[in-house]
Specification:
homotetramer, Arc Repressor Mutant, subunit A, Tetracycline Repressor, domain 2, 2 domains, 0% strand, DNA-binding
Chain lengths: 194, 194, 194, 194
DNA sequence: CATGAATGAGAGTTCATTCAT
DNA sequence: GATGAATGAACTCTCATTCAT
């Protein structure tokens, strides 16, 4: 594929991304994307055969950008509890954001395409986050901030709660306070209890 | 509406329910339901204008039947921890069942129709379950089985984890052991720690 | 299927027949037939799924009408040679007719759908004609008109020549004289040679 | 046209020939040929405007190669009847061969393009074959092998039967025995009958 | 009420053909 | 000459929705 082709494919992917954010996954037709991209019907088919392929490309792009969720903006001397709190705050912000997000489309897509472990973005991101949180908890224990007998279990628990909250936010109105409360709850479980 | 009409509407709703279980929500067309019900195309329109209306009727029906989730099969002299374990086991069974369930359709529906709190079945069932679990925990504390400083928070935590697990099961392959592990984790958090 | 449906299906079939006569088989699209019938796109699909199905229906119709090719217009006291000559003349007329005929479409269809013996119209008509010609030749022998040691072979020979002529007429310009010459040739082979 | 151009045109023609053998005439698209030739879409248009032009070029090539159908492999001292038998055997082999042949495509093409006599390959080959067979029959008469009052008529009869058989083989399943029977029949007609 | 034939909008898809590079 | 991206017309097929019976 030529350089220009790659550029165009990227252009289509990014344009389609916006369409998916607005309309979710299933709702989107090839026509929608053709129109958003302002290209010809046939032109789109040069790059993608169906909306599924396009969405998968969007996911790839998403993944690349998401790989450094944690790595950024973390001051070197920050305490583990601060980093965790920052991460949770970030998650909260995203799940409450009323603006269009890809979340809905992603869930719609995976409802239809329960792909096996390795290629499943949802699982990958989940596992990656669990891993990072676990490391944070361990660091917190060493620092004397946290007390926890099962850091891996605690990390998974946090992520399942977050996933539950995400779905809740996506499928019913959920007040910010409710999210805060849940986040507080899981954080408190980590601190030493006297 | 005549008595016969009511019967027919119920018949359509129940038949459509099976269709939704098989195909989810979005995928289902009026044609699918007409064919499943073996009624005429026009006939269906006498009762429902679109698949959304039908699904809402299915949800109503669901709600009525679901109102007594807990009330059944619980031996009077059972310990709270046993009842809770039973409930979690029940949930586990449902979320792992590979057979058709309404879950997927329900999530698909609420992804598209983030209806406000009061009428939102998902929220209602969630809140109801939280309430029951909270009562159980309180009973467990009194019985000396559980130790918990925030029964309401613990109950919500359990339910969010369950919702997260439900989504995980729906969107990626999840082994039974993983579900067991999470359930065990939340249960252990309730027992007295020495 | 209701009576009205049957009527409409017949109407479509007959209208489509004309389309096939004009354009052959492959060339014809569902759209062509929709337009010729002046019905809606979807309307046609109520009766047929693709042009193949329509053409098969046309063939059925053809077959019913063709079943009495020989039976008509034959004066009771006619000599076998006269009847045979009449049949050959009939065939000649058809194969030379410049007006649109179904021939081209039929061959196109069977080029693509070399269906097995039993359902193959081409084979059926061929075999039926061979059988009738054989009977005629036998009758002619008894009457003392013909001499022939292998009536069945002669009958098949005649039909293969006719098929060859039909194709020739369809695929290149063939003068009437050429057809006459071939017909004469096969007829002469039947008469007693002194 | 440069030398290189001529080479390329020949390359395209020969590659397209294989495509036509596989898919017939109508079915083949410019895209098919572009892909088979592994050249660019635009490149093909430098040489041919449509599949018809390409097929005509294929036919020309065919014609050149076919000009010496009879001339080869015939031992000088062979009897006419042997040569004729050999030719018929050759024809039989070809018409029964289940492998891909150009036959179908050729008929499809001429069904659509009933070109006038001079340029019509089908007619040319037919007439050429008739001529050779006629010569053979005459030679056979002189040798005392054959008896025939109308060698030209007999030759034409043989060729029409062959054409009929070819079509039959192409459009319905025909057993080898049936072909043998017809060939035997026309051969026997040539031998002296006592 | 109930039927189901009919409509037509719209999605998907494929190709012949052009044209800037 | 040669390339291959791009276009747009044309076709297939499916459904929501209507309406005469």
């Amino acid at each position: 594929m030529s350089d220009k082709s790659i550029q165009k494919k990227k252009y289509i992917t990014q344009t389609a991304r916006r369409v998916f954010m607005e309309k979710g996954y299933r709702q989107v037709t090839m026509k929608d994307i053709v129109e958003a991209c302002q290209i010809s019907r046939g032109g789109l088919y040069l790059y993608f055969q169906n909306t599924g392929e396009i969405f998968e490309e969007v996911l790839k792009l998403e993944q690349e950008e998401a790989d450094d969720v944690f790595g950024q903006n973390i001051p070197g001397e920050a305490m583990p509890s601060d980093i965790l709190a920052l991460f949770l705050k970030e998650q909260k912000k995203e799940l409450l954001s009323r603006g269009p997000s890809l979340n809905k489309a992603i869930y719609e897509y995976f409802f239809e395409n329960r792909t096996a472990g390795k290629e499943n973005l949802l699982k990958k991101q989940f596992d990656a986050a669990v891993h990072v949180i676990e490391k944070l908890i361990q660091a917190g224990i060493q620092e004397g901030e946290f007390y926890c007998e099962d850091p891996a279990g605690a990390a998974r628990n946090i992520m399942y709660v977050l996933e539950g909250l995400k779905i809740a936010a996506q499928t019913r109105q959920i007040p910010e306070a409710a999210v805060d409360r849940e986040i507080l709850y899981v954080m408190q479980g980590l601190f030493l209890e006297e």
